[in-house]
Amino acid sequence: MLLGIPGDNTYANYREANRAFYRLTVLPLVGRVAGELSHFLSQKFGEELRLWYDADQVDALAADREALWRRIGAADFLTGDEKREAVGYGARA
């Protein structure tokens, strides 16, 4: 689908293929590179360093983020701080 091979190329199929490409290929690769680079820099500078990516900045995964926010927003059984934690924010001070 992403290579442009003729066939069932609808927008929904392309969107799903693009999302799967990021989730199954790009993000794991970036995670491994960031982990190794963190390890290297930690040894180089003598302190614990952690590099990581922000998946919320990947446009191809916007639909996943929107679905998460809808599900968390509709969860009446969660407190405000639990909802914040579920979407990656810390508790309010």
SSE inventory with pairings:
Elements: H1 11-45, H2 62-74, H3 80-86
Care to describe what's here?
59% of the residues lie in helices and 0% in strands. The protein has 3 helices and no strands. The N and C termini lie far apart (46 Å). The relative contact order is 0.09. The mean pLDDT is 86.
Element order: H for helix, E for strand = HHH
Gyration radius over CA: 18 Å
Percentage of β-strand residues: under 5%
Helical proportion? 55-70%
Structural class: mainly alpha
Oligomeric assembly: single chain
Q: Which parts are unreliable, with pLDDT below 50 for 5 consecutive residues or more?
A: none
Mean pLDDT: 86
How would a crystallographer describe the biggest sheet?
Answer: none
Intertermini distance: 46 Å
Number of helix segments?
Answer: 3
By DSSP, the count of extended strands is 0
**What gross morphology would you assign?**
flat
Pick out its properties:
3 helices
Short structural description:
This protein is mainly alpha-helical. The protein has 3 helices and no strands.
